[in-house]
Amino acid sequence: MLGAIVRWSIGNRVPVTVALGLLLAAGVFAALRLPVDAMPDVSTVQVNVLTEAPGLSPVAVETMVTAPMELAMNGVPGLTELRSVSRPGLSSVTLVFADGTDVWFARQLVSERLREVVADLPPFVPPPQLAPVSTGLGEIYIFVLRSVTGTHSAMQLRTMMDWDVIPKLRSVPGVIEVQP
User: Could you read off the pLDDT of 60-69 as tens digits, one per residue?
Assistant: First the structure.
């Protein structure tokens, strides 16, 4: 069978060459219009709700802020996952939506639920805020602090990290959390 195709192709060089040229031109045309991303974003649609709870321990934040927030967010249309983190003075609730959900529609749904939950929060807790639109890939930056000269010990590098680098990173607008 393959031999017959090769014999036919050799016998009909002009139509085969024209077909090959058309196929090559179509490939170049498609390649030039193909949206290419160096690192395609395959992450889910996420909406992050941040609530400051000044002066509260993680247990108190979980009980007084995070739990009511999770209860209010349960049942949002398109919600596939709900996770949270309670830190000293901060509650972070992440809502993950089904693939194909428009991020702005998801944020609208969450905003509507936020209006309802404000009454359930303690009066000294400021209103919850939606974090800026970002993806799972855009939230993490990993770095290493090294001594260029080799004269700094691991303890000195850790001290520099805790007292110099981390406070400066936390002061950058949009940085929510820095974990050493």
Answer: 999 999 999 9
Q: Please check whether residue 130 is in contact with residue 113, taking contact to mean a CB–CB distance below 8 angstroms.
A: no
Distance CA 72, CA 19 (A): 61
The residue that leads in pLDDT, 148 or 43, is 148
Residue 83 banded pLDDT, cuts 50, 70, 90: very high
pLDDT, one tens digit per residue, over 93-130 is 999 999 888 889 999 999 999 988 888 888 898 999 99
- 60's CB contacts (< 8 A; 6+ apart) are 53
Contacts of 46 (CB under 8 A, 6+ apart): 94, 95, 96, 97, 134, 135, 136
SS3 content of the chain, % helix, strand, coil (to 5): 45, 15, 40
Length of the chain: 180
Residues 116, 117, 122, 126, CA torsion sign: negative
d(CA 88, CA 56): 6
Please determine, looking at this structure, whether the domain spanning 45-136 carries the CATH number 3.10.450.50: no
Residues sharing a CB contact under 8 Å with residue 142, sequence separation 6 or more, in sequence order = none
